[in-house]
Every structure is written in C-alpha cells, then in structure tokens.
Write a structure and sequence with these properties.
The protein is α/β, with parallel strands linked by helices. Helices cover 32% and strands 20% of the residues. The chain starts with a strand and ends in an 8-residue tail after the last strand.
Length: 429
C-alpha cells in the first residue's frame, strides 16, 4: 500500500508544490484533498515556471492522474484559466479528474468574502477574498452546489435559483446589489460545459487504486497551523490541511495512509493576520524576505518572515504523525549571519510546550531562542548532504533532534533538480 501524504508543517507557503512535482513523477495518482484557489503552488522545471492554485502539481507528469478531491471548493472560471495557461506552457499533461462531490465557488461567495472581511473592521482575518470561506460555509449549511449538480444543466438551474434567492438577500443586507440570475446562469453554464468531461465519482477510483497497490500521493495545501480545528483559530482557513484531511477530502480510510511528509521552511513565514512569535521586524527579516522572494503566489502580498519556530514545528510533527520532514529554502539562509531558532515559549513566568489554543494567550508568548552558527556558502550546487556546509548540516541535525523527526528531503533551490533526498526509505516505504 504505497501511499504518501504531503502536508505543510507551518502556516503554508512551504514550497509543497515543488515536492509534489518531484515525487509526482513516481506516483500513479496525485490527489489534492482540501482548499481552493486561495492556495498557490509554484513549480520551476525545464526553465519554465508553473503556477497552480487548483490543479494538483503532479499534472506535469504525463503518466500521472491528477485528481481534485471531494474536500476541495472549486472556482470554475479560475480552474479553466489555470488549465488553459498550463496547456499553453506544456501541451502534454497528465490526466485530470474532478470529484463530483467537490463544491463550486460562485461570484456571490467572493462578494460575501469581501463584505464580511470589511465588516470585521480592525479584527480582519486576512482572507484572500477568493470566496473560499463562504463556499465552505454553504457546504456546512448544506446549501452548497456540488460539481455533480453543476455539470447537470437541469439540476444546476434549479439549485442556482434556490441558492441565489438566499444569497441575494444577504448581499442586500450588506448594502450590495443583488446578482441577476440569467446572466450568472448563462456564464456558468458555459464553464460547466467545458468542465463536464473531467467530473466523475473519484472516491471509488482512488480507493481501487490504493487497494491495487498503486502509488497514490495525497497533496495538501496551506499548512497545519491554518487548519480549522488544529490551527491558530480564528486566523485559519476553512478546511483541514493536516494529514487527517487526506481522509476527509478523498474518501480513503486512515489505515490507508502509509507515510506522511511535512514540508517546512528553514525559517518561518506567515501571510495575513494572527500571532507570530518569531517574526522579525528588522533588516534580517527583510533580507530573508528578499532572498526568499517571499511574496504570495495567489495574492502577491509580502509574507511576514521570522526565525524557525521549533515549538510549533514539533507540535506539527505530532498533529500530522509525520514520518519525516522536508526542509525547504535552506539556501535562503546563506549569508544571513548567525541564526536563531525558537525552542521554548514563555508567558507569565511559565514555560509552554505547544501553541496555546486561545489566540489571545498565543499573542502574549515570548519565544526563547537558541543561537546557531550560520554559513555564507551558496548551496544550489550540492547534491548530497555531505556537500552542504558543516553549519548547514548542524542546523538540520538540530531540527531533527528537537522535533524527534528525521529529515527525509532537503531543498536547496527552487528548481526540481535542486533537491537532496536524505532518507528515501521515509518516502514510499
């Protein structure tokens, strides 16, 4: 049962897309299980840069089947633009399938996302305004429109009439103009016509592949601390990007998951609002931001940058039952100088072993740092652990020792080739 789950071990943006691309060539199926086009994966290979928001990054491998799972919410217009853009760059892609149980994002979701965020005043969450939260709200409220309904013209017309009546009342309560049914139905029926060939009941397809012993890679989006239940609530996303979400968003059972890799940066970043104990507001933070090109794939927003938070990372290892860590962007720390990592939180004279559940308590913690030696060498030419500077190897060892989780892979550059596999036995078993 060679199955592998890849999740973000921090607040997202850990370069999971590159890892999915690297390992996707070894997989028969790559299944994304959560989120929408509020998450972005960038893959650089063959001199080209590919940006994915909904399509699993494994699609670049022609023999791989890429599946948008039932746990996702899909903007049809955005999906078609992404498919067309990727085909223009690379005409020979893998096969794409979309779960009939995935939910559809409509313009009223995006409008409500903006209006609700504005209504929060100074307490904004920092959403991407892509309508993801409102789409998941509809899913929970049991009024969402799923892909299987969307691509059925008769059912879609009926459901859109029902839902739009409710949404227009909400929009008018916010002081916004209602959406006209005919124009919306006509536009989105056009999208449905193009998407229809991709839609099927993928749950049994994935289950059969697992049972047959095919290699199945489950692709996560965002990160563990944006999880709706396990994250730093309320500054979280609306889905479950932790490893358990691979079951919720695809229909496989937990015993079907053999390996879990958690992707983490060699430092920490965060987008949007919320506590960030190790954040740097000085020249070092700006240096990391510029060297790491830390600007959002989806929004273009500058990411907040800080030292590696090992307290949070150790908690993420536990939440996700990580088999191994994938440490990315180690190269970004070259030339930064002496490094720091947070090994403890303190508040009110007490030591904390994990991120507090209460966000207001988390906002008060003070990190305790350990000083580590930095390095000046460029790392992009290294192809084995032994070719890295001694200080870089010690840095990785410190992460392993503290989290009690082995480092399986190290990324020392954005290109597919700039990857060091340290423990192949931790990947597919």
């Amino acid at each position: 049962m060679p199955t592998l789950v890849i999740v973000g071990a921090q607040w997202g943006d850990e370069a999971k897309g590159k890892l999915v691309d690297v390992l996707g060539g070894q997989a028969d199926l790559v299944v994304r299980f959560a989120g929408g086009n509020n998450a972005g994966h960038t893959v650089i290979t063959g001199g080209k840069t590919y940006k994915f928001q909904l399509v699993p990054a494994g699609i670049l491998h022609t023999d791989t089947i890429a599946i948008i799972g039932s746990g996702m919410v899909v903007d049809p217009k955005g999906l078609l633009e992404e498919i067309d853009r990727t085909l223009a760059q690379k005409p020979d892609l893998g096969t794409l399938k979309i779960s009939s149980a995935a939910h559809v994002v409509f313009p009223y979701h995006r409008m409500l996302d903006v209006l609700e965020e504005e209504a929060r005043g100074e307490n904004k969450i920092g959403t991407t305004s892509r309508g993801i939260g409102p789409a998941y709200q509809d899913k929970v409220a049991r009024i969402g429109i799923r892909m299987g309904e969307f691509v059925n013209p008769t059912i879609f017309e009926q459901r859109l009439h029902e839902v739009l009546a409710v949404k227009n009342r909400l929009l008018m309560m916010f002081g916004s103009e209602p959406i006209e049914f005919d124009a919306l139905f006509k536009e989105y029926s056009t999208y449905a016509d193009r998407i229809r060939p991709y839609v099927e009941d993928t749950e049994m397809f994935v289950a059969d592949a697992v049972e047959a012993g095919q290699k199945v890679l489950f692709e996560g989006a965002q990160g563990a601390f944006l999880d709706l239940d396990s994250g730093t609530y309320p500054f979280v996303t609306s889905s479950h990007p932790v490893a358990g979400g691979a079951c919720l968003g695809t229909g496989v059972g937990p015993l079907a998951l053999q390996r879990v890799l958690g992707v983490c940066k060699a430092y920490t970043t965060r987008v949007g609002s919320g506590p960030f104990p190790t954040e740097l507001h000085d020249a070092v933070g700006e240096q990391i931001r510029q060297q790491g090109h830390e600007f959002g794939t989806v929004t273009g927003r500058s990411r907040r940058c800080g030292w590696l938070d090992l307290v949070g990372l150790r908690q993420s290892c536990r939440i996700n039952s990580l088999s191994g860590l994938v440490v990315t962007r180690l190269d970004v720390l070259s030339g930064v100088g002496p490094l720091k990592v947070a090994t403890e939180y303190r508040t009110d004279g007490k030591s904390l072993r994990a991120i507090p559940a209460n966000p207001w308590d988390f906002a008060k913690v003070e990190p305790v740092f350990e000083d580590l030696e930095g390095w000046d060498d460029h790392l992009c030419d290294a192809r084995s652990l032994n070719e890295l500077p001694t200080a870089a190897r010690r840095y990785l060892q410190f992460i392993e020792d503290y989290t009690k989780t082995p480092v399986a892979i190290v990324s020392i550059g954005p290109d597919r080739e700039e990857t060091i596999v340290v423990r192949p036995d931790l990947i597919w078993g």
